[in-house]
Amino acid sequence: AGAQSGGVISNSNTAAKIHKNSNAYVGDAHVYRIKDPSGKTFKIGESAQGVRKSDGASIRAESQVRQLNRQNGPGYSSEIRKTFKSKAEARAYETKLIERFRRRYGEDTLPGNKTNH
Length: 117
Hints:
Elements: E1 3-5, E2 8-10, E3 15-17, E4 26-35, E5 41-47, H1 59-72, E6 77-86, H2 87-105
Antiparallel strand pairs: 1-2, 2-3, 4-5, 4-6
């Protein structure tokens, strides 16, 4: 019989860890949006890093917001769009959202996204 602890499944013969960036990861993941200073959507992303305890903001998105504000001046912000129970669900939603934005507003929208994923 195996014991499970913190994403690690261990048996007498095997020990495998599923990375949070793997589509096989099962656990909370969310899709976030980063807005530029004018309020337009700059980037749509997905993360399984979790949320800050203090305000519930996406840890990954806020890291990117801090970097953008340092490089380009203040005014960038983030929000979580939706939370999912698996990485695969979050990634599928992220891709659909990016494709919908680009169909609606043109291929050059979402300057923070290099591809549709």
